[in-house]
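Quick one: co-fold with 2-(butylsulfanyl)adenosine.
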Amino acid sequence: MDFAKRILKIREEINDHNYHYYVLNDPIISDSEYDKLLHELEELENTHPELISPDSPTQRIGAAPLTEFGTIQHTIPMQSLANAMIDEELIAFDKRVQKLLETNSNVNYIAEPKLDGIGVELVYKNGVFTHGSTRGDGITGEDITQNLKTLNAIPLRLRHGNHPIPSILEVRGEVFITKSGFNELNINQEKQGDKLFANPRNAAAGSLRQLDSRITAERPLSIFCYQPGTIEGIAFETHMEFLEALKTWGIPVNPHIKNIFGADEILKYHHDMESKRNNLPYDIDGTVYKVNSFSLQETLGIRSRSPRWAIAGKFKAQQVTTIIKNIDVQVGRTGAITPVARLEPVQVGGVTVTNATLHNQDEIDRKDIRIGDTVLVERAGDVIPKIVKVIIDKRPQKTEKYQIPGTCPICGHKVYRSEDKAVMRCQNLSCPAQIKGRIEHFISRNALDIDGFGEKLVEQLVDKKILSSVDKIFTIKYDDLANLDRMADKSAKNILSAIENSKNTTFARFVYGLGIRNVGEHIAKILEKHFNANIHTFMNAQRDELDNIFEIGPIVSKGIVQFWKDRDNKNVVLSSIANGINIAKPDLSLTAQILEGKTFVLTGSLETLTRSRAKELIQKLGGRVSSSVSSKTDYLVAGPGAGGKLKTAQKLGIKILLEEEFLTIIYKINNK
Ligand code: IVH
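Sure, here it is.
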């Protein structure tokens, strides 16, 4: 193989993918395929270090940490923009421009989103990225070349577009972090016990100011460019021409930039972007309007710090202050308890806000949120507004720390907090806030499997107070059903017989149906085995007994104990039994636990067994079935059509069983 050629080819492909992703916003390969290419390139360059070039995608990361940033003089000062806070100021700007240009016709502007990030300047010499800097005081910035090089969105070498490559290209743009990138970054920061960033802008600033560029490389930074500095070797007549050229060179330009005319279109663009703002993947704090013609820009000239040919239209604040009048506690359909702040109504970004979620006790403690506090509230996207921080200076005297009550606000039962989670939960099977969801779960296919008992029926029966807990299902009478809207005689009878049939059930189905926190089908089966399908011993089990069951951890066992601590939950079970629930003992012919502790994966089609039957058999014999192959897998049962899982298993040296071999194991036990 010609290594040099392959290296050049991969570099070109990677650059092409960056172009598709960042400039065209239309990626053509997956992230993992991209990583694979980069990995191949790294390996080739490792074995042929003489072929490494500074513009290779592998050279983005790895520069030695700095002790301080150097400085860079901007050849043309980086100015700022004058701000228009209200529509009238945008109209006045357009009037001023018309007057100075001595025209009555609509002026041609380029309208751009005003990104809320960090302004930077990139310098390309003969198409190669040589320097990058912050805005600094506008004259001198910090040299952040190493950090900017880590951004895949910044081409290390310009593409050959429709325009010749300029000998010097200085281009300004905004480095930013997307809203989702920001959320992920903060989750990571929290995991590592590092400080959280207040907003995407701060996160971008903090990431760019790292002396160790390897940290910057891990941050999801991106860039859109919007303004020329010095350009040599090529001249443009309009701002739009310049932006179009940037794209062909591989430099990202915001896709919402528009060519417009006159004040009406300025206002329309401004309002349009303001309404789209929350749905954009990154933060913008306004819009920018620039006279399109460079010669007219020159005629208009600059004031002391900002050009006369451009203006920024600022959006209404998304953050405002208000007062917490009260804190209420809500109970979700799964029993999760959520505190909600009731606010003195305020306008945020054009919407009246009266509530803000407080998430959980940890969040309340971290921000020390109290009733009566003045708080900074933020609205972003369609999500429920959140409280950014308390304005401590405005705290009234004699306030108290807020503590979520220890009982459910709906049913009054004790709430509990699982060891691994910040949320508190109400575990009352019959809590009115949860009852519909609990009944739906109880009758679902893998629980009691009551046919023809749909969501609508549950809703009607709960609303009519016929069902107030799951055991009441077994006392439903013909008249209860027949009196409902649109209930035919035949359907009512069918439902009653489905309820009757469901009474003969298994321990595992019944226990799974109770919806004990973290007790899914698999755990329910383990419990069935351990307690030999005796629901009474299970109801009275203590922590140490549960903790000693293989595969049951402390979080599950705590949830179980908490569940049975509530006497009403026990009563629901006893009442179900009194009303005919009959729990079968497990099938004793198959109880030899020869597959105890063994993990199986099934793949391909099986010929004599259905998958679910095979799964059931494995579980009855003490094994477990997992959906993916890993080093923890003991056996892969592979039928015709097996593909990826088979390959992975072979690679990991996992024992592979054909259907026949699998059946031999099962039958051996059956015939014992
Ligand atoms: S043009 C002479 N265009 O806003 C004009 N700036 O106060 C120079 N910004 O420092 C700036 N989006 O960091 C321009 N589409 C955009 C912008 C933008 C955000 C930032 C930039 C600048 C500040 C202006």
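If it helps, Residues 3-23 form the longest helix (21 residues).
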